[in-house]
Write a structure and sequence with these properties.
Strand order of the largest sheet of chain A: 1-2
Order of helices and strands of chain A: EEHHHHHHHHHHHHH
Radius of gyration of chain B: 19 Å
Strand content of chain A: 5-15%
Helix content of chain B: 25-40%
Distance between the termini of chain A: 31 Å
CATH architecture of chain B: 3-Layer(aba) Sandwich
Distance between the termini of chain B: 33 Å
Shape of chain B: globular
Largest interface: A-B, 28 and 36 residues
Number of strands of chain B: 10
Helix content of chain A: over 70%
Low-confidence stretches of chain B: 1-29
Oligomer: heterodimer
CATH superfamily of chain B: P-loop containing nucleotide triphosphate hydrolases
Structural class of chain A: mainly alpha
């Protein structure tokens, strides 16, 4: 049996083919598999190149830190030289932040905010996906409710604070209720839209193999709509944070929003700034957590469209 | 050998006339006992466009497919080939006429039928591994996990794919993805396989490999196969009978029996004078203009 050489070129950025390698293949054996493409894997790269690529991959996210670091340093230096009442030095704000939020002080105010945020957001996700699925799969139901939903959705969530206070009081129920009301729409509409735009081939496949409804819903319909559902959830997350803080400012007697307003009313501007720093950090961490979950859930989607592992 | 080749179309012809006679009886009992695996009886399909124009896609299409027969459906592009296949698969109810599978009227996808689509990249679920894709249709059959795994690896081995169960479809080449789609159909253990332009999206070499794979699998699993294709060579090479459809609205223009035996070979079969002759017959039928009195 003759041995045939197959040359494999890796296409790099810029379109140039470099790193040509020669792989021996016997026709009829490896040749088929090679032609079919599975065996071309990046670990055939030389060691040095691989190490370089890995280092680049690890350093690349650090680029995003340049501006924050520069900005914070600038803020620190500039504010240290001034003694404005409204803009206290960053070092003072930081001291206050550590004492108020990390070493006791007002640590207890964090939990009511986080609790209503997490519960409200989880409920909004559940309600949004459930009704999104219903509206997508039952067009009759959708036609029935669509005008009502468009009307209700047009009412700003925060305008409903008085109504919710009358109905649910000033406790955590009101906060959770308002978070659900504010955050449910992007999830609901994106779920419906994601399912409706499902590929006909995928739908035909699911029907022709007579999948049970349960399998069709959880293994075909929801995963196929998951990129859009996640996009809706991302928008809803920031809405949820806004609604919680605003509601706490208006009605609550606890929580970070309440703390911010009280600090401002008591001319404790350093305290107010420390609360803003805390909210920034909480918002950032929530986003980081969300992106970790999203990366995991949508791994297939990224890989498909960015060509990873191909 | 020769005898069985020529005898087969004749027996099919008898089956067809019997089925025709039993059509009225079938309409009253809901059953047609023609011995055919699939029967299409006067199937028409029309739909109303957005502008309110009624467009007829299928005009009274009728044919039978015998058990373990390989039927290829060809026709000019724009003919309702895919529409017809979706009606056969129970995915689309015809406007009038009936489709029968094993004698029972088709109102939903039949249990003993599997479908392979042209667009493998959209028929495989990218969020599932290859093994999960292959075992997805088996979940309904309430088989033990081990049995599902075994069926999956057997089917993957049968289509010439080794240990790739943990890969994702998008990690594979087009040809391999279509093999996975075929493996999924085989693991489902159907009596009949419907394929819609199954090799139209792969390169020529992969295409002939997959044609031979399907022929081998048909023998191994004794399946009835209906394939829609626009490739006339492929239709003649693979099938026992070619059904030529006319242009829109679509009806059966001609049925060509392909008496090339049960063993087909890419080189030998395709150079037979009979093959060339059949190919020309089919090509002439496909190209015949609409309204030709000889149609």
């Amino acid at each position: 049996m003759s041995t045939q050489s197959v040359r494999i070129g890796l296409l790099k950025e810029g379109g140039a083919v470099d790193d040509l390698q020669t792989v021996d293949a016997e026709p009829g054996h490896d040749g088929d598999a090679l032609a079919d493409g599975l065996l071309i894997q990046p670990d055939r790269e030389p060691d040095a190149r691989r190490r370089g690529a890995r280092a680049r991959r690890m350093l690349l996210p650090l680029v995003g830190l340049i501006i924050p670091v520069v900005a914070i340093t600038a803020w620190w230096i500039v504010s240290a030289q001034k003694s404005s009442f409204y803009f206290p030095p960053l070092s003072t704000i930081w001291d206050r932040f550590v004492h108020t939020w990390l070493l006791g002080g007002a640590t207890a105010e964090i939990w009511p905010t986080l609790l209503s945020l997490v519960l409200g957001y989880a409920a909004a996700t559940l309600v949004g996906i459930t009704f999104g699925v219903l509206f997508a799969l039952l067009p009759a139901v959708n036609r029935f409710f669509a005008p009502v939903i468009e009307f209700v959705r047009a009412v700003p969530g925060l305008a409903l604070i008085p109504l919710f206070v009358i109905a649910l009081g000033v406790g955590i129920e009101t906060k959770i209720g308002l978070v659900i009301f504010g955050a449910v729409w992007p999830i609901l509409l994106n779920t419906t839209d994601g399912i409706r735009s499902q590929d006909l081939t995928i739908r035909d496949t699911a029907f022709s193999y007579r999948l049970r409804f349960r399998d069709r819903l959880f293994r075909v319909i929801l995963p196929s709509a998951s990129p859009q559902i996640m996009a809706g959830m991302k928008v809803s997350l920031s809405i949820a944070v806004i609604v919680v803080i605003a509601t706490e400012m208006v009605v609550s007697t606890s929580g970070i929003g309440n703390f911010l307003l009280k600090a401002q009313a008591g001319f404790d501007l350093t305290g107010m700034w420390s609360g803003l720093v805390l909210m920034g950090i909480i918002g950032y961490l929530l986003n980081v957590i969300f992106e970790l979950v999203e990366r995991r859930v949508l791994r297939w989607h990224r890989a498909m469209y960015e060509g990873i592992n191909r | 050998m020769r005898d069985t080749r020529t005898a087969q179309p004749a027996s099919q012809h008898i089956a067809r006339t019997q089925a025709g006679r039993l059509q009225n009886a079938g309409a009253s009992t809901g059953l047609v006992d023609s011995g055919a695996r699939m029967s299409v009886r006067g199937v028409s399909k029309s739909y109303t466009t957005d502008r309110g124009v009624v467009k007829q896609v299928l005009a009274s299409v009728s044919f039978d497919v015998a058990p373990e027969e390989f039927v290829a459906i060809v026709g000019p592009s724009g003919a309702g080939k895919t529409t017809l296949l979706r009606a056969l698969a129970g995915l689309m109810p015809p406007t009038s006429g009936e489709v029968y599978f094993d004698g029972s009227p088709v109102t939903a996808p039949p249990e003993r039928l599997a479908l392979v689509f042209q667009d493998y990249s959209r028929s495989l679920m990218p969020w599932m591994t290859v093994e999960k894709n292959v075992t997805l249709p088996l979940r309904r059959k309430k088989l033990a996990k081990e049995v599902q795994k075994r069926l999956s690896s057997e089917a993957l081995a049968a289509v010439g794919l080794g240990d790739i169960g943990t890969h994702y479809p998008w990690q594979l080449s087009g040809g391999m993805q279509q093999r996975v789609a075929i493996a999924r159909a085989i693991a489902y253990q159907p009596d009949a396989l419907l394929m819609d332009e199954p090799f139209a999206s792969v390169d020529a070499q992969t295409r002939s490999d997959l044609e031979d794979l399907i022929l081998a699998l048909k023998k191994q699993y004794r399946m009835t196969i209906v394939v829609v294709t626009h490739d006339i060579d492929e239709a003649v090479y693979m099938s026992d009978r070619v059904i030529v459809l006319s242009g829109s609205p679509t009806s059966v223009r001609q049925v060509v029996d392909v008496a090339l035996g049960t063993h087909r070979d890419q080189l030998v079969t395709k150079s037979l004078p009979e093959f060339v002759e059949l190919r020309n017959t089919v090509l002439t039928a496909v190209r015949r203009p609409v309204g030709d009195p000889t149609a």
